Input
Amino acid sequence: MKQMRQETLRRIISLVLLIVLTVVFTLTTDTFLSWDNITSMLREAAFIGLIAIGVTTCIITGGNNLSGGLAVGMCCMIFAHLYHYTAMSLIAIVLLSLLGGLLSGLFNGFVVAILQVPDFVATLSTGMIFQGITYVLAVRNQYGSITSEMIKNPTMAALGGRLPNGIYYVTIVWLILTVVMQIFLKKTKMGTYIYAMGANRKSAEYSGISFIKVKMVAFTIAGFMSFVAAMFTLGRNGTCDVNTGTALNLQAISAAVIGGAAFSGGRGDMIGTLIGVLFMQVLRNGVLKFNMTTAQQSIISGTIIVLMLVFDAYYNEFMQKRTTRAAALAREKENAGK
Amino acid sequence: MSEKNELLFEMKNIEKIFAHVHALDHVNFDVRKGEVHALLGENGAGKSTLIKILTGVYSKDGGQIFMDGKEIEINSREDAAEAGIAVIFQELSLVPTLSVYQNILLGKETSKFGFISDASEKKQIQELIDRYGFPVKATDIVETLSVAQKQMVEILKALATEAKLIIMDEPTASLSSRESELLYKIINQLRDRGVSIIYISHRLEEVFNLSDRITILRDGKNAGVIEKENIVPSEVVKMMIGKEISESTASRALHTSDAETELEVKNLTHLGYYYDVSFQVKKGEVLVLTGLVGSGRTEVVRSIYGADPFDKGEIIFEGKPIKPTIKKSVANGFGLIPEDRRTQGFSPLLTVTGNVALTSYDKIAKGGFVNKKDEDALGRKAVELTDLRPANPNVQVGNLSGGNQQKAVLGKWLTRDLKVVLIDEPTVGIDIGAKDEIYNIIEDLASKGVAVLMVSSDIAEVLRVAHRIIVMREGRIIKEFNNGVATQEDILLASSGFVNETKEAA
Output
């Protein structure tokens, strides 16, 4: 008998959870499965999803990224700052925001790969730096206090729009990037290296794969995703304030974990994370319709994540013990038969 | 035949010195094309140092290395790989979440614009697998494979780099006997295809069956090279041990047989680890379980202590059957000196006193508060009892030498009133002077009436401290000796599966 892989089982569990939750909410509320509700859920999901793409990539390398949401805020504020204080063209402003996103990733990569700081604490601290920069760049009124900047640009406003059938542009971009990243992870050299580095760093390095390069690539992808999320945030809200993006990161990590990414590295993919993101969003939306508080919702998603992590921690060890035992029993029988 | 005797690889007068110790002293070693060449020697004979030199982990301090007649320098893993040398690691170095073909080609993928040419790679690797008839598929994910299959992937990885010389270090250590048979077949196949293999194993039986030649090292020097047709097991063992030592067997008087039995184990079985293990330890007796690593010795001791479960059998302590848990064991006066003291024996950041106190908070703490005076007294007592150097109970244990660290671990238990002490490989990595002191401590314990159950692979040590010796092999007791009857050869032969060649115990 062949052991079922942790990934496969996790994929099934998260999919079942998603379906159960959807069925429950559909049966108990009348508005849950309405087209309006679906499109708006998919819009909210897209923001978590974009950050989750970057987070998942970092988790697969055996690391993590706690700074993705704060980098969104920083990209937004770079845009707002230049929009308010300079006369630059829109293209120039967007490109400089993009540069900000990519640099945030490269900086994370530098701290993690070259300075050798563990991912978790490294990105916790760089996140604080990004948030600090957001405050420094914040637009202020004549008394010096921070105001939220209105972005009255039609092109940006259009980014917040949707197709005639109601699906938002941000959802489409999120789904396209999910597919692109899935292909990148599964079909390219660098994708394979990202898995190899996360699952067994020594073996990857002995095969001539550079730790620095892999980490740089993963964090730069995360930085790029923060930039994309930032532009659509501006499109949706039409404003930018210092708190933009702060809540996104934890939800993105939750989604990645529910979707099967393991903190030990080497596991997880974009399809799993897609399921995880949908799960988080359905839960959020459904409990709102049940008039549950966000606190209750946190308790539910937190509990599920703990259970998933417990599963990750024990599954492989448990299966291995079982296999050893089964083999020993089989050998006993063989000997007894002789 | 002349072609078969052609040399592939040669090491001449290799020297390696670690801190004034000659780990390798003018060692010569060569391998012919298409030959299985075994490297034998006891622990510390220099085998692993030699292998590390030829794989580029260490650099040699003297001597020459030749490949295909040309002198080469090996200073890194890359150098070794370039010369066509590959190692099948004991602890496997594969990426568990990738497929077989991805693992084999890791870092050497063919690609267009960064996209891997998947289909052609799968085909190429499947062809390689089929050529050797290994029971794995190119697309299998490595973590779903058995240990034996993973090893095959390692071998394929070596073959894919067109390695001419493959080093196998204890390849059968974690394989079942059927899996081992398959490995032997594969090794023979590789030999027939002209690949040379350096084979290292403690299992003499398989070494004798597989090898075309055997090189024996002892104390960092060449002790002999034997062709297949000249192999006589007892002769080989003599060469490994060295005659002088073999004859001066330090023996101890048998323990007085009228002492009470303190601990008894009846038909103890933990499926997959050990089977039908029965023995008694009397008060004041030192019983040593020996045998190869993986023969189930440590697992028996851990079950007795309550650190691991068991399936069948009985553990009887002072005439009453017990179901041990660690907590009960400590309360019953059991002590465990574990195999790996660094990870299981002591806490490096705590002081000697801090470590010693860990086992005695029931005595020195009242209502949750530790009595500092009692704690300090305990630390001083431990230092005194074990003759720890420096004689300061306030030193962090992590800063002590290996021998003194072990004394601190012993101190954890010596300060309690022990009835049974379980000791697992007490002197690994400890210098000779400190070893003797630790033996003295063990003997002291026994003379005070403590029942000592010890696990050791070091045969000289076994003969030094044991009253009785039990040899385990593949989870079963296969031989029991009273000390004074056994010699080093007897024990080594029994451990390796040559039971019939040993003298009968009296």
The longest strand of chain B covers residues 7-18. Chain B has two domains: 7-246, 249-333+421-426+450-506. Residues 177-192 of chain B form the longest helix (16 residues).
